[in-house]
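dumping this here before i forget
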Amino acid sequence: MSGQSQESFPCGEAVVFAVRGEIDIANATQLCAALLHATDRPECHCLVVDLSRVEFMDVSGVRALIECCRVMTWEGRHMVLAEPSAAVERILSAPLGLDRVFEVYPIVEAALVHTAHQRYEEGPFTGVRGYE
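structure:
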């Protein structure tokens, strides 16, 4: 899976949201809400979800990412995934057709190439301890 195979367009501003810990049925809904809240500004056109520190993700985490992507697309914005950890890569590479849903970049910097401005936001989200 690669973001290079997807159509990209220039963005005014991107937010990088770093997720850490576990994403499962207990917190997937909160993850989607936190991702959407991080981009709740008119000038933010792109969300880059940094998954490098995710230790575990199940199918409910995938559903949350799909829902967030769907909402952002409906609003005329987009979401990309970056640096998936080994745990995330396992589920993204399963034969679910997720390569047609997500743009996935090997590193955050590659995901930011199409943006004019970027803002890094350490996500207040972790599946291990809940909101901080």
